[in-house]
Amino acid sequence: MKIKLFLISLIMLAFTYSGYCLKVATTLFPIADLISKIGKEKVDVVYLIKPGEDPHHFEPTIDDIKRLQGVSIYFAVDKRFDSFALKLAKKVLFLNDEIKSNNPHIWLSFENMKQIGKIVSQKLCELDNKGCGFYKENYDELLMEFNSLENRYKFDNVKVLECHPAWTKFLAEVGITSVGYIKKGREHEPGIKTLNRVINLAKKNGVKYIVCATNDKNKIFNKVANILNAKIIVLEPIGGYDGYTDIFKLFELNLNNLKKDINE
Questions:
Q1: 220 and 177 fall within a common domain
Q2: How many domains, in total, are found in the chain?
Q3: Exposure of 219 by Cβ count < 10 A (0-12 exposed, 13-18 middle, 19+ buried)?
Q4: Residues 129 and 164 in one domain
Q5: How does pLDDT run across 160-188, given as a tens digit for each residue?
Q6: 119 is a domain residue
Q7: How confident is the model at residue 20 (pLDDT cuts 50, 70, 90)?
Q8: Taking the mean position of all CA atoms in its chain, how far away is CA 19?
């Protein structure tokens, strides 16, 4: 019996070591998927905000805290966005500080995601030196895919208004100029003077499109669109469900929506 138990223990130990992987965490699906593409089978990625949840009002639950047990590093977005991570993980890296971005929507940009990918591969190398070549190779593939996708979509002389300033950098990367935004943030309600200024600016620039996110729900956006006789283009900011189960698909579907609505 003792020999049998010893053999069972050896087998379980072998499975434990053969299946060993780093456990890391982040807040949102896009960054989690980026980490997964770099770490692949060597990394177990946990992300907290479920598809459809509003990240602006997210609070971690007890189950979320349990899921973070054993995490080696937490890739946080922004201290204004997910400072709760400091209380939940021993090692937290705020990505917006690393890439020096003032806009918390850092995942909505080709350039930002390339920089974040490089940072992630470097940190994984620090945590797992033996797998460093593996992570760097996967990052190089990620970089090529982003470059290929970005180069396939270019717009010419298109100006838009944003519901709130989440897409500015992403739009600029494909040749679309954002002349301004209607709301500064979720909790911000623009006054009459602000609205008049934004509307006049949009008219001056010949804006025919307003870019909003799927979770932008406010009657004021439709009112501004009616005044400008502008079309609202709705983009998906986070994904993680339906056809948006891959970071490249998330970018591509949003670009296809822009192309379709602008060319109509």
A1: yes
A2: 2
A3: exposed
A4: no
A5: 999 999 999 999 999 999 999 999 866 67
A6: yes
A7: low
A8: 28
- Report yes or no on whether pTM surpasses 0.85: yes
* 257 and 190 together in one domain: yes
Residues 163 and 257 in one domain: yes
Confidence class for position 220, pLDDT limits 50, 70, 90? very high
Measured CA to CA, the distance from residue 207 to residue 201 in angstroms comes to 9
Enclosing domain of residue 188: 158-263
79 exposure class (CB count in 10 Å sphere: 0-12, 13-18, 19+): middle
The residue among 133, 150, 167 that closes a domain is 150
Joined together, the tokens standing for residue 19 give 């299946």
Using the predicted structure, report yes or no on whether residue 6 has a pLDDT greater than 60: no
| Number of alpha carbons in the 13 Å side-chain half-sphere of residue 164 | 20
Helices (H), the chain: 2-18, 29-39, 62-67, 79-82, 85-88, 95-98, 110-127, 132-151, 168-173, 192-204, 219-228, 247-263
